[in-house]
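Marked as duplicate of an earlier ticket. Keeping the data here for the record.
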Amino acid sequence: MADTFSNFVKTLKKFFIPFPHFSPKTIKLFIPILPWYLFLRGLIKIIQGLRSVSGSFQFGSLPKMFSTLIDINPFYLFWDGILNVLVGVLYFNAFTALSQKNKKVNCKAREATLGYKKLGWISWFQASALLVFVRFYEVIFHQSSVFWTVIVTIIGWYGIFEFERFFSNNLTKKTIKKQPKKKSISKK
């Protein structure tokens, strides 16, 4: 999965490089808020998923007029709900990883924390990729707006690209600073 993540990041970089970028100061303001955004996003997706699943089970008990207005097969609602719950769980997974604090600890513990944060970014990537699939599933089976889906998807991936760009630059700066100097052994 790490190879898929790095390949996708390279593709994102090629696509989004021509666009204007946010300054690192601006992005740094949003870094503390980002895990809580992912938490709320996960909570909303789980609620939407449970609503769709319960709607698929109660489809036969709705009034006839309302059920003909919906015109959606309950089977599609059920799978839409299951996929939304999975997206929510992945967002929660990203939240738990990205909300870890960098404390003043030894070098190995700091590397473990940074590795855990990398897992958070990978979980965010997985959640967003599954969310794109869910959105296009809704376009096909729920007659959602294609234009709105494409615009929101591009804006969302651009945000991921901006945060990943900041995170990878910040991570390389920290690891360069923390590497111990090698002692040179000279032969006499």
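See parent ticket for discussion. The mean pLDDT is 75.
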